[in-house]
Amino acid sequence: DNNVKYVINNDETRFDFENNNALKKINKNKKIFTNLPRVRVGWWHLLTVVTLFRLQRKALKLKGNKKHYESILRFEIDEIGTRNVKLAKIAGLPLIYQIVKAIFILKLGIHRDVINVIKSEKPDLLIHPSFLNGYFINELLLSAAKFKIPLFILVNSWDNPSCNAFCTGMPDKLVVWGEQMRRHAIKYLGISNQKIECFGAAQFEIYKKPPKENRVELANFFNVDPCKKILLYAGVGSSGCETLYLKLLEKAIKNNILQDCHIIYRPHPWRGGLAEKEEDFLSLKWDHVTIDPSMIDYYKSVIKSNSGKLFLADYVVSNKILTLADAVISPLSTMLIESMIKGKPVLAFFPESGHYKSLKKMDNLHFAEFLKINEVNTCYLEKDFISSCQTLVSQIGDTSFSKILKKEAEFFNPKREKSYGRQLAELAERML
Questions:
Q1: How far does the chain reach from its first CA to its final CA, in angstroms?
Q2: I need a surface site. Which of 40, 57, 179, 209 has the fewest CB within 10 A?
Q3: Angle 361-406-375 (CA atoms, 0-180°, nearest 5)?
C-alpha cells in the first residue's frame, strides 16, 4: 500500500552486495545507495560511549543492575582503554555533557547524502532496522527532528537496548521483540513506554512454520544419520578454540559416554579467523562431528583471510538445522533463544580457554536473565562440559520440558498471530 524505497550505505569493505540475496530481490529503481564514511561512525561512537555511561549511571539510581554496569565498564575498557573511559565518564557529567553533545552535533551535523535522499524522496515516514548503532542512526534521529518526519527504529537483537544509547534524539516508535527488551528500553535508553511496540523478532518469523522436509530429508541435507541424537554446536563471533571442545565431544561419543549422538558444528556467521591454539576444523579427521554444509565456503574463506566482511546467514537453513537438531550447545549466542522457541533443550557453555569474553559478558543483563531460567543448562568449567552434555541429552524427547522452554522463550520473543510485516504496516498506517 506504500511506495517503499530502500537506502543502503555502500560500504563494500563490510558487505558483499553483489551476492546478497535480499538485495537481489529488490527492484533496482527502489534501491538508493549512500556513501557515508566508516570514520564518521567512529566519531559518533565516541558520543555514544559518553551517553551510554551517563544513562547507565542514571539506571543504577533507579535500581539498575550493578553487575551489568560493571560488565559494560570492563568491555569499554578493553575496547578504548582505562584513560578514555574515565574521560567518557567526565564528559557525561551534567552541563559538561550538554556542551560535548552540542559540539559533536555542530561538527558532524547530518551527512549530505542523507539530506539529499530526504529532499529528493520527500518521505512521509523513516524506518530504520538497527543494532542502535551504525551508519544511519544518528543521521536519522537528527533528520527526523529537522524535517519533522516520523521515525521508527526496529531493534535487531536482545542486547541492544541495555548495551547502547540514543545520543542525538529519540524515535517516534521503538519496535522491540518483547517484554524483556521493553523493560530494558525504558530503564537503560530512557524512552517512554508509549513509544515502544513489541512485535517479536523479525528474523525469527520463519520459525513459526516448520520446513517442508521431513527428518530423513533434513538429515540428508546436513549429511547426518537421522536415527542418531543430533546436537548442534553453534559457535560465536569471537571463535575461540572451538575445535578443542568439538574434539571433547568427538571423544565422548566414541567412548559411548554420549551414546548414539552426532554433532553438527555451525560456525558463527560473523566469526573471525583462528584463535590462538585453535585448529582448522576442516584439517582434522572427524567421525562423529560434521560442519553445516551451507557454511563450509564461508569458513574456508574466513580462516584463509579474515577480511572483516559480514556473512549474512540464511534463516531458511537455520530453520532446517534447528528443526533437525534435538538439542543445542552454544556459548552466548541467540541460537540458544532460537532453540528454546523450537522447544529444544539448550546448554549455555562458557569455555575457559580461547579468547571468548563470555565470562566477562555473562553479567550483561540480557544474559543474566536468560541464565536465571531453571530449564537452561549451564557449564562454566571445561571439566564439567561432558557431564553437562549428558544432562542435556537426557532431556531430549521430553514433551513437557519442551513446552516449558517454549513458554520461557516468550519473555524474549512473544508469540504474535500477525506477521512482523503486517504489524509494521498497521503501525505505519496509524502513524500516518
A1: 12
A2: 209
A3: 55
Distance CA 419, CA 410 (A): 16
d(C-alpha 262, C-alpha 329), whole Å = 12
Positions of E strands within 225-271: 229-234, 261-266
How far, rounded to the nearest angstrom, does the alpha carbon of residue 272 sit from its chain's CA centroid? 16
- Contact indicator for 143, 135 with CB cutoff of 8 Å: no
CA 409 to chain centre: 16
Could you tell me which residues come within 8 angstroms of residue 377 by beta carbon, excluding any fewer than 6 positions away?
A: 345, 346, 347, 348, 388, 391, 392, 395
Q: Tens of pLDDT along 390-420?
A: 999 999 999 999 999 999 999 999 999 999 9
CA distances in angstroms from 328 to 317, 334, 342, 376, listed in the order given: 15, 11, 11, 11
| CA pair distance 277, 124, nearest whole angstrom | 54
| Cβ neighbours of 206 (radius 10 Å) | 17
Write out the three cell numbers for 431: 502513524
Tens of pLDDT, residue by residue over 68-127, are 888 888 888 888 899 999 999 999 999 999 999 999 999 999 999 999 999 999 999 999
DSSP assignment letter at 422: H
